[in-house]
Amino acid sequence: MPMLQDDKERKDFQGLGIVQPLLDRITELGFVKPTPIQFKAIPIATGGEDVVGIAQTGSGKTLSFAIPMIQDVGASKKMGLVLLPTRELAVQVEEVFKKIAGPFGLRTSILIGGTNINPQIRELRNKPHIIVATPGRLIDHVEQKNISLANVGMLVLDEADRMLDMGFAPQLNRILSFMSKDRQTMLFSATMPEKIAAIAQQYMRSPLRIEVARPGTTAAKIEQEVFIVHKDDKMDLLERLLNEHDGSVLVFSRTKHGAKKIALKIRQMGHSADELHSNRSQNQRQKALKGFENGKFRVMVATDIAARGIDVEHLALVINFDLPSQTDDYTHRIGRTGRAGREGKAISFASPEEKGDIGHIQQLINIVLPIKSSSGEKMESVTTSTGRQVTTLSGAKRKGGGGGGGRGSSRQGGGNARRGPSNYRRSGRGR
Ligand code: AMP
Prior knowledge:
The chain is α/β, with parallel strands linked by helices.
């Protein structure tokens, strides 16, 4: 796939092939300057070409596909389809579409699992122009003949790597087989494992590959630190940090049971808190998200998958109560704070045995993380033979002087691999 160079100034949304009424709408909504992914992706897509975008949540990628899709659907009378991995993300993406496309009389519909199918069937009878869906529920609708995908003129695969992580590859292949080849496709992914490249090759028309905000670039804007803390002392440390910091806090737990327990403890500490994980109903999740967004709850405790759609303005702090099972998730997690160029802070708890995982995270983000003991004292860092500082981490695997070979490696072994079919990510190739 050819790479596109970033050779022009990013000043405003003019010159990206966007029609005037849509430009006016973007301005009305307060967007002045395109983010790098928007600047690169929009002109290719409005020019009718396929795009593979390597970009993370927080980079502004939603508008980079929403704008071309709305423009295409408005002109072609064909349908737009956005496929994405989680319900929460679907809700947020649909909201963006509604805001932009609503005034043009374009109807959107959201097809996600975990909710009653009947209202969705009624909406589909109304022939929506744009559909935002998770793969399983979309297939249910296709099988029940509530919808035909033959008329899809533009398809977006959002967070494609995450969809594969969650085991959606068979559903994706099925959905793609229902569709006409005469369509435009945009694929977005935070990483570019071979399986994604294969999808692009098989189902896209010579896509242009664009890349922004490598994990390190996003992470660089966020103040980060690590506390080495024994498991039994984590709760006390959490209480101290919640008292020391102001503002909304997102706490990550590795398991849903852990999330529940942590949220309960936080409430006992006297802070308002809710939890977001797969044991909660769709309704409960929506309420939790809304409550967190409007400040009803100061603290949200979430697992990785459930947290994908969280987009809260001014999220002050992300706390990794547990380190992520997969190193890549670190950047997804901390990307919840410091969104679209704003600054944020992320604090991770690591037990003494998890120092090796901190090493992997450092390799991924290419940053040396300040390390403290649970009492807040700074712990030592050293300089390697390459001149790069790394912390004294007994378990960190470093081959050949830290040349980046470990980027994107996932945490393996230890019996805690969270998602079965996700091991392909360990190679981290093609970043
Ligand atoms: P996304 O990566 O699409 O989830 O967007 C992350 C955040 O950036 C959202 O809160 C967007 O509203 C915001 N955003 C997206 N594009 C822009 C832009 N061009 N200027 C300012 N904020 C933006």
